[in-house]
Amino acid sequence: MKPTLELREIHHDFSGLRVLAGVDLSVFPGERHAIIGPNGAGKTTLLNIISGRLHPRHGCVIYRQKDITRMSPYRIARLGVARSFQVINTFPRLTVFDSVRSAVLSRIGRRLDVWHVVDHQESVTRQTTNVLRLLGLLERRDTPACALSYGEQRQLEIALTIAASPELVLLDEPTAGLDVDESRKAIELIHQVSKNKTLVMIEHDMEVVFALADRISVLHYGVLVACGTPDQIRNSKEVQSAYLGTNLYVGRRS
User: Fold this and answer.
1) How far is CA 75 from the centre of its chain?
2) pTM of the predicted protein model
3) Which of 5, 84, 173, 222 could join 20 via S-S bond, C-beta 3.0 to 4.6 A?
């Protein structure tokens, strides 16, 4: 089976400060792959390189056997790659429905100034409604995004990510700021929205990681120190050494 995503010898730095040092990674179709590591490990930089927001100093990104290393984020998105952000990135003044509809429009190449026409397009309305139903936001469809609770805003951002029907979903800290109950709800949502898709996720919450990931990659000071199943990562002496005995492997929160 050929990988959906390949990273080959990815290097990056900021003004000479090394952030990534020769990262090689393959993610296969339908796989849920988590990238973990301490703050400053290079995780978000890696996601920015995959999505085209940054270009690596060296190395290449291959998506479905196509080199996308120097492509713009817009072109990469059009190829079927969508991402969320660690900081909530929604449209605060738009309603939930209009926010998700904008993402659906983006996928089909329509502009926001044709909304008066789109109102009569049953397919766009149906797709938007289906996404809201999947994410549990249908009852909030007419609510401005800025009036949602923090947890609902996280749900909305995931909705915006999947509304474009991507094949590769990139999630950056999807449970950041959520309490235990909200995180467990997010696990179920991510399970649902990632069905038949390939998922790459950055996450600090080990309960979320071990509940979702088929494989886990560990970044430490820009170096990929381990890659394996959740059980392999839990039991890796190299990972334990890198994290100096922290509770990284517990995967449970009280």
Assistant:
1) 17
2) 0.84
3) 222
pLDDT interval class at 86 (50, 70, 90): low
User: Which residues, 6 or more positions from 4, have their beta carbon under 8 angstroms from its beta carbon?
Assistant: 27, 28, 29, 31, 63, 64, 167, 168, 198
DSSP string, 100-136: HHHHHHHHHT--GGGHHHHTT-HHHHHHHHHHHHHTT
CA-closest candidate to residue 28, choices 164, 165, 167, 163:
167
* C-alpha distance across the termini of the chain, in Å: 39
Domain ranges of the chain: 1-80+168-254, 87-165
Per the CB < 8 A criterion, the answer to whether 94 and 144 are in contact is yes
User: For the segment 119-174, what is each residue's pLDDT rounded down to a tens digit?
Assistant: 547 788 888 898 898 888 899 999 998 899 888 888 888 888 888 789 999 999 88
Angle of helix 180-193 relative to helix 150-162, nearest 10 degrees, comes to: 10
Of 88 and 28, the structure prediction assigns the larger pLDDT to 28
Among 3.10.310.50, 3.10.450.50, 3.40.50.300, 3.40.50.150, name the CATH number for the domain at 1-80+168-254: 3.40.50.300
Q: Which H helix or E strand runs over 7?
A: strand 5-14
Q: Is the dihedral of CA 156, 160, 166, 171 positive or negative?
A: negative
pLDDT at 192 over 50: yes
Report d(CA 141, CA 96) in Å as an integer: 5
CB contact at 8 A, 216 and 233: yes
How do residues 219-251 score in pLDDT, each as one tens digit?
Answer: 988 999 999 999 999 888 878 776 645 555 444
